[in-house]
């Protein structure tokens, strides 16, 4: 799919399909008015038959409108003129994508900027348009002999009236494509089964990045290295698996001001979480290949940054391993000395994500980070609390909370700030060790965050629990690529002034 910007002349130019809006009560958009005038009232006449009132989700395909050179027209219901909100705009784009997917053509023009979305500008509208387009046309069929593909061979021209808008339009397309294609790459890794996508597979993918992009250096920390580092909690999680635990470090440095303190993104990369000896019931285990979505998201974010060559210093840590039952498995009751020196009593081997992350939070201190953000499918409790639309946000920094909220509201990749509540820390008191790895049944997302926080050093830290949002029930469980939009926007906002 190619996206372009142009001032299209309905009167003189031919194109395979024109996409134009009809507002509520059959109000025509500017382009629809123009078509109506050229065709001596054809559009209004068609609308008078009552098939379409201009409501959201409505659409109508017309052919051969008199006096117009182009032959196909897609009328899209856009609701109340000048009163389109974010959700309605998303619906409108979905309706466009669904219809275009059914039609055959090579070139389409869309009159996107005629839609006035409340409080949103052209850049935002184009970003959303392209990102939704990618989202709705994504198909995962890498493991099928017969690959399914979407009819995406056409070019989409976004009509812009003012030439002064072209440069911002082009930047929006560039950013949207980098984000949307990085989401697809992350989804492709996440959707792979655990027998293919193990820590070694991901480590190769991470290494591959060095050859694809400038400014990237990747190295892998293997089990023997972790032993030397004392990452015993991380090692304990992978100890029941035939597959080696590997932590892949992707360093991206293109900071113009030679920044010394990086932003670190840590992704939980459990390529399978059986629960270990505290084994999960079959029903809850069935989708646990997705327990590496945090790592895949970090991979995707680095891909986005490197594609756009953003002037940043970012280190991605893909914390990969597999939680299995084997002769070396950790047992409930085991006490492990973590890399920090703190001892942990493992009361439940299924609370393994925090065991991996606690050592990584200690490890990354050596980079003197300014910011550390971890992304993890950490607790079922978080999805119970916030559902599948909202990720849990925990942080020790008001700056990060504010900035992540800002990015969330912009991208509609929703987060909700939950507390690292001091009183609940008591639940982690252990009889035999410094801390234990589970709280009670209640407030499980919070006690998990409390556990992580006790390993956080002197840096601004945010923890995103994406257990509910990293996969999508609607598509019979598939990866969503979240929170790539959120973190991409957070990073774009940080370099905004430098990009202009
Ligand atoms: N990977 C799971 C969390 C999860 C659950 C992610 C559902 C996605 C969907 C995590 O390792 C886990 O098993 N957490 C336990 C923690 C409990 C033992 C304290 C949970 O949520 O039940
Ligand atoms: Zn688990
Ligand atoms: Zn897990």
TrEMBL record:
Any single Pfam family the record assigns to this protein: Peptidase_M17
Binding site for Mn(2+) 1: 273, 350, 352
Protein origin, superkingdom: Bacteria
Cofactor(s) essential for the protein: Mn(2+)
Catalyses which reaction(s): Release of an N-terminal amino acid, Xaa-|-Yaa-, in which Xaa is preferably Leu, but may be other amino acids including Pro although not Arg or Lys, and Yaa may be Pro. Amino acid amides and methyl esters are also readily hydrolyzed, but rates on arylamides are exceedingly low; Release of an N-terminal amino acid, preferentially leucine, but not glutamic or aspartic acids
InterPro entries assigned: Leucine_aapep/pepB, Macro_dom-like, Peptidase_M17_C, Peptidase_M17_leu_NH2_pept, Peptidase_M17_N
Residue ranges of every copy of the Cytosol aminopeptidase domain listed in the record: 348-355
KW Zinc (keyword) present: no
Residue numbers annotated as active site: 280, 354
Enzyme Commission code: 3.4.11.1, 3.4.11.10
Parts forming coiled coils: none
HAMAP family: Cytosol_peptidase_M17
Function (record text): Presumably involved in the processing and regular turnover of intracellular proteins. Catalyzes the removal of unsubstituted N-terminal amino acids from various peptides.
Family under the similarity heading: Belongs to the peptidase M17 family.
The protein, known as: Probable cytosol aminopeptidase
């Amino acid at each position: 799919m190619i996206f372009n910007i142009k001032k299209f002349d309905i009167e003189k130019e031919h194109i395979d399909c024109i996409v134009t809006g009809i507002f509520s009560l059959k109000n025509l958009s500017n382009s629809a008015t123009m078509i109506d005038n050229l065709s001596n009232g054809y559009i209004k006449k068609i609308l008078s038959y009552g098939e379409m009132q201009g409501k959201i989700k409505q659409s109508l395909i017309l052919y051969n409108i008199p006096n117009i050179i182009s032959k196909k027209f897609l009328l899209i219901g856009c609701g109340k003129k000048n009163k389109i909100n974010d959700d309605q705009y998303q619906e409108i784009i979905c309706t466009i994508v669904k219809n275009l997917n059914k039609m055959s053509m090579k070139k389409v023009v869309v009159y996107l900027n005629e839609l006035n979305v409340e409080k949103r500008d052209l850049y935002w509208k184009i970003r959303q348009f392209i990102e939704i387009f990618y989202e709705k046309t994504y198909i995962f069929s890498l493991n099928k002999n017969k690959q399914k593909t979407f009819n995406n061979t056409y070019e989409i021209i976004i009509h812009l009236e003012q030439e002064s808008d072209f440069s911002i339009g082009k930047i929006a397309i560039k950013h949207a494509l980098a984000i949307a294609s990085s989401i697809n790459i992350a989804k492709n890794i996440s959707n792979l089964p655990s027998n293919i996508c193990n820590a070694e597979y991901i480590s190769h993918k991470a290494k591959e990045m060095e050859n694809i992009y400038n400014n990237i250096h990747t190295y892998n920390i293997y089990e023997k290295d972790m032993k030397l580092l004392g990452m015993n909690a991380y090692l304990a999680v992978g100890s029941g698996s035939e597959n080696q635990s590997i932590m892949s470090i992707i360093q991206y440095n293109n900071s113009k001001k030679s920044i010394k303190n990086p932003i670190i993104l840590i992704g939980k990369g459990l390529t399978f979480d059986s629960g270990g000896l505290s084994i999960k019931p079959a029903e809850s285990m069935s989708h646990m290949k997705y327990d590496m979505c945090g790592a895949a998201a970090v991979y995707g974010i680095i891909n986005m940054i490197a594609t756009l060559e953003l002037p940043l210093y970012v280190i991605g840590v893909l914390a990969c391993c597999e939680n299995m039952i084997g002769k070396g498995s950790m047992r409930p009751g085991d006490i492990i000395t973590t890399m920090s020196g703190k001892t942990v009593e493992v009361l439940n081997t299924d609370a393994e994500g925090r065991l991996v992350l606690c050592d990584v939070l200690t490890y990354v201190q050596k980079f003197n980070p300014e910011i550390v953000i971890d992304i993890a499918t950490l607790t079922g409790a978080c999805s119970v609390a916030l559902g599948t639309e909202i990720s849990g946000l925990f942080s020790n920094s008001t700056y990060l909370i504010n900035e992540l909220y800002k990015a969330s509201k912009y991208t509609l990749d929703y987060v909700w700030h939950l507390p690292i509540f001091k009183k609940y820390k008591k639940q982690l008191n252990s009889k035999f060790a410094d801390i234990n790895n589970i709280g009670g049944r209640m407030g499980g997302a919070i006690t998990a965050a409390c556990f992580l926080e006790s390993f956080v050093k002197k840096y601004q830290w945010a923890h995103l629990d994406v257990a509910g949002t990293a996969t999508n029930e609607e598509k019979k469980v598939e990866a969503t690529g979240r929170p790539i939009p959120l973190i991409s926007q957070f990073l774009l906002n940080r370099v905004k002034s430098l990009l202009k």
